[in-house]
Write a structure and sequence with these properties.
The N terminus is likely disordered. The chain is mainly β. The two termini are about 20 Å apart. The chain has two domains: about 220 residues; about 210 residues, no CATH class. Strands 5, 6, 9, 10, 11, 13, 14 and 17 form an eight-stranded antiparallel sheet that branches. Helices cover about 10% and strands about 40% of the residues. The longest helix is centred in the middle third of the chain and has 12 residues. This is DUF4270 family protein. InterPro entries: DUF4270 (IPR025366). Pfam families: DUF4270. It comes from Sphingobacterium litopenaei.
Length: about 450
């Protein structure tokens, strides 16, 4: 047989190695191409030891996400997730442009859905939001220049506000609203605020008070607002990060008719608008997983594995035997795919994340890098492939050929992988994915096609 034909035959007979996570067998089998002194063979092996665990990320950036994320959801496996949005305010103009003779009418906050009309949870129920006056200055933190810089994950690139941070606000709300979030048709959500709050600002403008004369003075006077969901809410909504506060007034025009107008306060900067995301896993398999106890084995979580945006819940995988396998100089990897199956169909009120990424963590669990698209520097994202109602699971597929070929290089020594939602949604949504289970093991497989040279 000619060498050319033998390679074509090799491609035809290529065997896919399915490596089920948590599974460990001892099997090494060579398949001959013919009966004449071949020096090439297709080999099947499934003797890898791979382990999974649940892992809690820290230092999740939550500012400048372009999302005002507000609401609360509850699930039996993961407990509750609640998101409160904070923002600084500024005036549209620091000049007194209110017409002479105008009188104060009302004040209201205007919220609009974001471009994607994002929601998560049950939107058929009545939701409640309240606006509170912030009493503590909203500031960013830069862990890259502090003593904690060695704890900075790869996704922290500069000053930010983290999702676990809180700033104090008045207990009594300035105003609240109840509504049904008809996500596809709702235009605005208007929250009427306390008149004493609005009139005080109106009067200060009319009297040219120092507190409304410049940005710094106004921030000292009004440090910001917090948009807080009620504890019995059933959905989390994504709203536009351009939030307006309308100071409404009226006056008699030159024609003798009543004219209405408004002074507008808006968010000061995306850097000072962020979402505080709280989770409560009490009574769930993940109750012991938190910011201090950051890793639980698959067995400790009742053999359940999840990925959840917003809260920083990821799945950690270890493949120690893969490194030994790649030390074999007589093999050549042709294809390598990591396939992650999920139980959700990816539709409805609790959709699966649109895409996942793989972070590279060091021996202390700190994310130090990302798995790139093969032979590039861009972060690889595996897009969700929907399942169906006849038993086929949804799945994500990563191309790991570059990662596997370099697994024994300095780039990946003493590292593991963290399965996470893609970077944008990791910080701006609460979408979750439950990894499918088969025979008490998570359905995550590494499929490898390789050539073995004798």
């Amino acid at each position: 047989m000619s060498q050319f034909l033998r390679f074509k035959y090799l491609h035809f007979l290529s065997v896919v190695t399915a490596l089920s996570l948590i599974t460990s067998c001892n099997k090494d089998m060579s398949i001959s191409l013919d009966e004449i002194d071949e020096d090439i063979a297709v080999t099947f092996i499934d003797s890898f030891t791979v382990n999974t665990s649940s892992y809690q990320l820290n230092y999740l950036p939550a500012s400048a996400t372009s999302n005002v994320l507000v609401g609360k959801v509850q699930s039996s496996d993961l407990g509750s997730v609640k998101s409160t949005s904070y923002l600084r305010l500024m005036m549209d103009s620091y000049t007194d442009n209110i017409p002479e003779g105008a009188v104060y009418d009302s004040v209201n906050v205007v919220l609009k859905p974001n471009a994607t009309r994002y929601y998560y949870g049950d939107t058929t129920q009545v939701q409640s939001l309240a606006v509170h006056k912030v009493t503590q200055e909203i500031v960013t933190t830069n862990i890259l220049s502090s003593i904690d810089s060695y704890n900075a994950p790869a996704y922290v690139t500069g000053p930010t506000i983290f999702s676990n941070q809180k700033f104090t606000y008045e207990n009594t709300a300035l105003g609240s609203v109840q509504f049904r979030p008809y996500v596809n048709s709702i235009d605005t959500i208007s929250i009427r605020l306390n008149d004493s709050f609005g009139k005080d600002i109106f009067d200060k403008i009319n009297t040219n008070d120092y507190n409304v004369n410049n940005v710094e003075a106004f921030h000292a006077y009004l440090k910001g607002i917090a948009i807080v969901p009620a504890d019995n809410n059933t959905a989390i909504l994504g709203l536009n990060d351009t939030v307006n506060v309308h100071i409404n007034y009226s006056y008699i025009g030159s024609d003798g008719f009543k004219v209405t107008g408004k002074k507008i306060l808006t968010n000061y900067s995306p850097s000072y608008q962020y979402n505080n995301i709280e989770y409560d896993r009490s009574g769930t398999p993940f109750a012991a997983l938190n910011a201090t106890n950051r890793e639980l084995s698959f067995q400790q979580t009742d053999k359940k594995a999840y990925i959840q945006s917003g809260t920083g819940l990821v799945t950690k995988i270890k493949m120690p035997s893969l490194r030994e396998f790649m030390n074999n100089e007589n093999i050549s990897i042709n294809k390598a795919e990591l396939v992650i199956e999920t139980e959700s169909l990816g539709q409805g009120a609790s959709p699966a994340p649109k895409s996942l990424m793989l972070m590279v963590s060091n021996k202390n669990g700190l994310p130090v890098n990302f798995v790139p698209t093969p032979f590039s520097t861009t972060i690889q994202e595996a897009t969700y492939v929907e399942g169906n109602d006849v038993g086929e699971n949804g799945k994500y597929v990563f191309n790991l050929i570059d990662y596997i070929k370099n697994i024994n290089s300095n780039r990946y020594i003493d590292t593991d992988l963290l399965i996470s939602t893609a970077s944008s949604s990791l910080f701006s949504t609460v979408n979750s994915a439950k990894i499918a289970n088969e025979n008490g093991k998570p359905k995550i497989k590494l499929n490898i096609v390789y050539t073995k040279f004798k």
